[in-house]
Amino acid sequence: MWPLHREEYLGGPRDWQQDAAVLTLAPSAAEDAAHVPLIVDATGIEGQVRRIVVTIDYSPIPLVLTFHPGRALPLLGFGVKYETGSALRASVEREDGSWAMGATYVAAMGGGCTAPAAAHARPDWQERLGEIRARLWPDTGRLRVSLRHPMDTGLAPGIAAHHLTELELASGDGETIARLELHEPVEENPALTFLLPAALARRPVTITARDNLGYRFEGRVEAQS
Amino acid sequence: MTRRAPSRRQVLLGGVAIAAASSLVRPARAASTYALNPFEVAGGVWMIEGAQESLDAANGGAICNIVLLETDAGAVIVDTGSTARFGAALRAFADQRLGGVAAVFNTHHHPDHWLGNQAFTDRPIKALADSKAAAEANGADYATALYAILGNWMTGTAPHPPAQAVAPGPVVIGGRALRLIGEAGHTGADLAILDEETGTLVAGDLLFLDRAPSLPDADIAAWKRALERLADLNPAGVVPGHGPLDRTGAALAQTRAYLEGFDDRMKRAVTRGLSPMEAILAGPMPEFAAMGANPEEYHRSVVQRWTEYESEALPVVGGA
Fold it and tell me: What is the number of alpha carbons within 13 Å of residue B257 lying toward its C-beta?
């Protein structure tokens, strides 16, 4: 699958290689196929990172997300759904257009993409749709953001696709810090870890997100020790 | 275990895949058998000790402790193991050595404790009402998951949830006085049984010893309150759900310390902004790292309990 995905999702770059500097950290086996925690850490890559494309080899929807770190560090913590045991790959594009790829294998009993979101078991799930929780740690530059969203893949019987499509971090003056394109395999109620340089982590950060039905969500977080 | 139902298609595909693998790769493989080693831990109280491990094809799912209490009407069996074949071996022992089976109790709804019920469907199988309901709701998912993990050991196993709901309180079976204790914390309903004659407490998974506690349905605060009440019983001996017989109070102390250690670890992780993967990579609390079933139980527990801790630590900053 990787050669096909390289063609389709990275545009078939000629200059790419596996690179141990792209850390992809995941448990060896999924305890819950709907919530497999991951960290992609490309801070060991020399020079500026343009984007990080995350794909899962054997998934009904292989493209998980694209992270444009911008002024943030190229590190992202997040969670995904697994339909079956498979390799997950993080492809890192440098400013010069070359690519470095890191990968990890997660064993999973599966069903993460075709099961209905847990939200649908609650009659009031729409009331808190899009609720944003976040905290920013100025000492470490960490930002942890969670959004309440069912992230429906459209593959569960009778439930249409309903998922976040983009998320943006901006500094108080409205300048973009980092940007994410999100797809269906991202976990329900996604929780994300970002790493900001000290200068940005001491000031307020606004978080905006959209989903495929046109809903827009917004929050603002201030540094808290 | 999964709380979300796999589709019927997956259940069927799982069965097909396993059948194909066993017929192609391991032709004419003899059925695996369980070597039960029951021993009497107090007058008329027999214990079969489970492996202090996670569910695995190597241990055939025989990981939880089983207790058989002798009565004039046959054995009272507490928990039945993970598979139909284990249940059948248990039944054979009770029939041959203890004059048959008077009744079966399931301490809670986790599958390693009751998927062996199939061997006892002609006898009363009892549990707390909420355990009965949870076993009914999750039985098919549990069986699917255990087929995937245990393979051949599960052959012929179908879930038979407990059929009778019992209330806490005293009960006499075949002349033997028992006290049924209804607690919660490890799951929403945890049954412990005190044998009045010997003072033996059959604790189910409210107590673990030298094997990492599993927390898929845990409410740690409720569990700690339950432990206080169990301590007040001053039992002469304790059979934990997993781990060796205990006559010193070690199971109570260790289970409490593990829950407090895990609670503290998670609270510190979320207030420092860690992600669950980082908490997993940190490994189990050092003083519990050498326990049976660790680090895997710790890893599972982080995934299972993370969101509760994190939503406490992250304030709401916006929305739609």
Answer: 14
Q: Which residue type occupies A188? A: E
Residues from chain B contacting residue A193 (CB–CB below 8 Å): 273, 275
Which tokens is B101 given? 């089976």
pLDDT value, residue B32: 73
CB contacts, 8 Å: A31 with chain B = 299-300, 303-304
Q: What residues of chain B score a pLDDT lower than 70?
A: 1-31
**Measured distance CA(B105)–CA(B171) in Å, rounded:** 12
Which H helix or E strand runs over A17?
strand A16-18
Burial readout B19-45 (b: 16 or more C-beta within 10 A, e: otherwise) = eeeeeeeeeeeeeeebebebeebbebb
**Which of B2, B10, B275 lies at the smallest CB-CB distance from A193?**
B275
Specify whether the CB–CB gap between A101 and A92 falls below 8 A.
yes
SS (HEC) of B239-261: EEEECCCECCCHHHHHHHHHHHH
pLDDT tens sequence across A117-172: 998 888 888 888 999 999 999 999 999 999 999 999 999 999 999 999 999 999 98
Q: How wide is the angle at C-alpha B115 spanned by C-alphas B114 and B116, nearest 5°?
A: 85
